[in-house]
Amino acid sequence: MFSLLRINTATGETRIEKYSSKDFLLGGRTLSSRLVSREVEATCDALGKKNKLFFCNGALAGTATSSANRLSIGGKSPLTGGIKESNAGGIVGSRMAEQGLRCIALEDAPTGDSAWKIVVVGKDGVQLLDGTFLAGKGVYEKSDLLTAQFGKDAGCITVGPAAEKLLMASGIACSDPHGVCSRYAGRGGLGAVMASKRVIAMVILADGKHKPAFTNKEQFKDESRRVVKLLKENPVSALFTKYGTAAMVDICQSLHVLPTRNFRHGVMEGAEKINAQTMYDTIKARGGEGKTQHACMLPCAIQCSNVYPDEGGKLLCSPIEYETMALMGSNLCLKNLDTIATMNRIANDAGVDTLDCGAAIGVAMEAGLADFGDDQAAIGMMEEIRNLTPLGRILGSGCKVAAKVLGIRHAPHVLGQAIPAYEPRGTKGMAMTYLSSPMGADHTFGFTLRDEAKPLTKEGKVGLSKKFQVIGSRMDAMGMCNFVRYAVRHDMTPLLNLIKSYYDVDITANEFDDFVKETLRIEHHFNTNAGITALDYRFAETFYDEAQPETGEKMDITDEESAQARQW
Amino acid sequence: MVRVTFKLTEVGRIELDLPTPLLFKEVLRHCIARTGYIPGGYIAVRKGKVVNLGDMVEKGDEIDIFPALSGG
């Protein structure tokens, strides 16, 4: 049986429910999206009391399996107006498992002027404590205060000052293995949803006594070791260990899809100054607290994360991911890793998504508020977000809002969510994925770039995108890290064997994929019920009218074609 | 001469004196024979365009081979 803890944020009432269905077994996005679909009125105000926020760990959470402790957070998104699942690494998923929980639901909402609360979940029950002392503080300070009060091993979830003001680019920060709230479920504005319920933090204490009850412990151990072996032997996974996602800078520059100058170009002169090798060499040269490999959750055999130090060797930001390096780097024509790391740190402290805010600053630069390539101006705009100035609030609402306010037509988003770091006119497969994701422009599923024989043509991209939407969604579907997919891309047996030896439940590969497809179907259905139409799944018109200079390509995917890619 | 660079690997750049034009899959076969390095998933790029196994490689071509990673 799997436990769902419901917490009414208006009344303080709590209730535990037990379920045994396979969607609860799988957890992750499989569960969060079903719960949103069943329990959230699609037309509701995402920041109102009818929205709910579901925190789900996955099928293998709390075990010694590598990379199995992602936390899926689901609700209706204030940014896209549709369904949202955003997931993060860290230790919260395993702390929930230790408390015997598959899901925590934050429901209802008190009035907007109610006192801030900290939800504390432990072996003795749930408490709603006064959280006023956290209000207005940055995430790093909040994290320190939570650690001081609840211990560094507690799994903490908090939001930044941007969320407290209900800004739509605000994310949810989760504790990393060192007790720092730096692992973000960044996309879709779910931080604002949490804050709308006047919950400023949630803490899962490290006093849980629940142990996994394996059906066949020895087989589970064998299968876990097999997963580690697959990850270690897979050449792609192994490279993630050395360079992390930053390796994409060179790949995208070479393919002319590196977002540059507010997605006007696909190439940035001097991109090598912010590429993986430069980052690796900088971290190594500076030493100190810097780390070229780092685990965002425990255990993890990939360790693709990093710790980027300042010149003195002190931690400046952890982690820096490719998407941030592009949206806060090349997209703004910035060629300094220290600048990007500083902006990333401010974003983490303000509690906002680096992609949506990077894209919003790109729009602001195109509007003439600063010059592209101006490091200090870019950092200054991030400070405006953290300080909640009028401009900062506009930028912290994402690039769609920023573009509307600042009079820019070339707004890089789909459904209001900023386009990730692959210029869509140069990769029609990724463009198809952006146009068919129920989450708005998204890169973590439907990742076609590495398998596009002809990136510039749209032919065959409906099928290619759909193929990778399934492959890319498998890991989200059970709370695994997305990068495990490389090791099981052609054969899910190792993970399905783990489920069998843990729960004594048979799930075939086809049945598993049916769950994945059904999840996508449910998510699109929610969006339709929310009032999102086929006409909303478009890029800004400028992407269709103006060719990207390096490839000569315009966007040419039709509404009918993207609709096909959303059919499940 | 054909120049192939295996990016982000210890292999680096190699130069192959091959009769051209030649299918890329043959070029790749020569690379593997020379270095012993077998790329897993990869993306091969020549002048901003993806090179597929069935594409022809010409004299003087420079091809970059990237490990097929993804963002996160």
Quick summary of this structure?
The complex is a heterodimer of chains A (568) and B (72). With 568 residues, chain A is of the alpha+beta class.
Give a description of the structure.
In chain A, strands 2-1-6-3-4-5 form a six-stranded mixed beta sheet. Chain A is globular. In chain A, helix 7 runs antiparallel to helix 20, helix 12 runs parallel beside helix 14 and helix 18 packs across helix 21. By secondary structure, chain A is of the alpha+beta class. With 72 residues, chain B is α+β, with helices and mostly antiparallel strands. Chain B has a single domain, classed as Ubiquitin-like (UB roll). Chain B is built from one helix and seven strands, in the order βββαββββ. In chain B, the strands form two sheets. Chain B has a five-stranded mixed beta sheet, covered by helices on one side. In chain B, strands 3-6 form a two-stranded antiparallel ribbon. In chain B, a hairpin with a 5-residue loop joins strand 1 and strand 2. Chain B is globular. The mean pLDDT of chain B is 93. Chains A and B meet through helix 8 and helix 9 of A and strand 5 and strand 7 of B.
Q: Which CATH top level class of chain B fits?
A: Alpha Beta
Backbone structural class of chain A? alpha+beta
Strand fraction of chain A: 5-15%
Most strands sheet of chain B: 5 strands, mixed
Task: Provide the fold topology.
The complex is a heterodimer of chains A (568) and B (72).
Chain A: E1 2-8, E2 14-19, H1 22-26, H2 28-39, E3 53-56, E4 71-76, E5 83-88, H3 92-98, E6 101-107, E7 117-122, E8 125-130, H4 139-150, E9 155-158, H5 161-164, E10 172-175, E11 181-185, H6 190-196, E12 199-204, H7 217-233, H8 235-243, H9 248-254, H10 276-286, E13 291-294, E14 305-309, E15 315-317, H11 322-327, H12 337-350, H13 354-366, H14 375-387, H15 390-395, H16 399-406, E16 413-414, E17 417-418, H17 428-436, H18 461-477, H19 485-488, H20 493-503, H21 509-529, H22 541-545, H23 559-565
Parallel strand pairs in A: 1-6, 7-12
Antiparallel strand pairs in A: 1-2, 3-4, 3-6, 4-5, 7-8, 9-10, 9-12, 10-11, 13-14, 14-15, 16-17
Helix pairs in contact in A: 2-21, 7-20, 12-14, 13-16, 17-18, 17-23, 18-21, 18-23
Chain B: E1 2-6, E2 12-16, E3 22-23, H1 24-35, E4 42-46, E5 49-50, E6 56-57, E7 62-67
Parallel strand pairs in B: 1-7
Antiparallel strand pairs in B: 1-2, 3-6, 4-5, 4-7
